[in-house]
Amino acid sequence: MKYKVDPKFFVFLALSIVLWQFTNLAKPVSVSKLVNVTFKAPDEDYQLIDDSVVSIETRVTSTGLRLLFNSPYNKVYSLSTESMVESDDQFVLLPSDIESQLQKEFGEAIAIEKIFTAELEIPLARIASKKVPVIPDVSISYKQNYILKGALSVSPDSIRISAPESTLTAINALNTVPLKKDNVSVSINQPLAIDYSDLGLSTVEKTEVTINAEVVRFSEMVYEVPILLPELENGMRLAVFPPSAQVVCKAPAEVLKALDSGAFGVTVDFDFSQGIDLLPSRLPLKFSYSPSDVLEVFFSNDRVNYILEKQ
Q: What is the mean pLDDT of the segment spanning 163-185?
């Protein structure tokens, strides 16, 4: 004998199961899982040195429905570090502060029962600042009969930088990005970026400097200048060969026209009070004076032969 089941029975059964599930989900349950957090630096005097996510085991109580549709474990929470404590040169958040902040994030419907962590270390560093010089990484070659007048300058020649104290200690100067110029015949005045991308700096006062190089045309002339010799003690006399030095001078043509050999003073570069036993095989030369308005001055040969003899 066959029995025919009324379809309404299956509808009733399905509704009963759903109602039973909802009834169970409406009951409070406790769950322990990992909550993911990051940190926010308290102010500009500090910098996070690691922005990775930290996981904290947390037990919460709420209804199954709430945890199913609004789980606190599917988010990453950013914790404030304004109430941090410094301990043994480290910055930490106390469990009570962590719980308080997370509870505000979870809301009243999800209650935190326990935070399974001690104080939480914050990867934070105190920021310091100092001024460092800027060193230009510049290579210049000049067109024939052109030369750099004076020295290449950088403006500003130093800047203030900020970084974690441990990072700042190792930085004594900043370099510019490389600049190479060939066959130059005109003065240079151009901005040049500072290379600081891999130094871990927090702030940089300026990101570029201005490079200045005054390039001028020059002429060259050779002067025959007598070598001035010192008077020696103990009846010794010094003679050098040749008795004069060839001095090469680079300057604008109008400056060279006004010069003669008397504009240069040349003598030997040795302290005879050290004793003649220390004399080198050939004596070096040096300038005792030279014009200040020339571009470059040097010897064609900066050493001479000599003889020491008794008078």
A: 91
Which residues lie across from 192 on neighbouring strands?
209
pTM greater than 0.85 (yes/no): no
Mean pLDDT of the chain: 85
Q: How many CB atoms lie within 10 A of CB 52?
A: 8
CB atoms within 10 A of CB 265: 15
- The partner residues of 33 in beta bridges, in order of sequence, read 58
pLDDT of amino acid 27: 64
134 burial level (CB within 10 Å; 0-12, 13-18, 19+): buried
Residue type, 183: N
262 three-state secondary structure: helix
Separation CA 191–CA 287 (nearest Å): 37
Q: What is the mean pLDDT of residues 265-276?
A: 85
Is 191 in contact with 208 (CB distance < 8 Å)? yes
202, 127 contact by CB (below 8 A): yes
To which residue do tokens 């200045």 refer? Answer: 212
Which of 62-76, 243-257, 283-297 has the lowest average pLDDT?
62-76
Q: How far from 306 is each of 232, 236, 254, 298, CA to CA, in Å?
A: 14, 13, 36, 20
Which of these ranges, 11-15, 72-76, 85-89, 262-266, has the smallest mean pLDDT? 11-15
Long-range contacts of 296-303 (CB under 8 A, 24+ apart): 296/147, 296/218, 296/249, 296/250, 296/251, 297/247, 297/248, 297/249, 297/250, 297/264, 298/247, 298/248, 299/245, 299/246, 299/247, 299/248, 299/266, 300/222, 300/245, 300/246, 300/247, 300/248, 301/245, 301/246
> Does residue 6 surpass a pLDDT of 60?
no
Residue among 169, 206, 194, 202 nearest 41 (CA): 202
Q: List the structure tokens of 133.
A: 């010089």
Planar angle of CA 136, 138, 143, nearest 5 degrees: 145
Q: In angstroms, rounded to a whole number, what is the distance separating the alpha carbons of residues 230 and 237?
A: 9
Tokens of 71: 């789980």
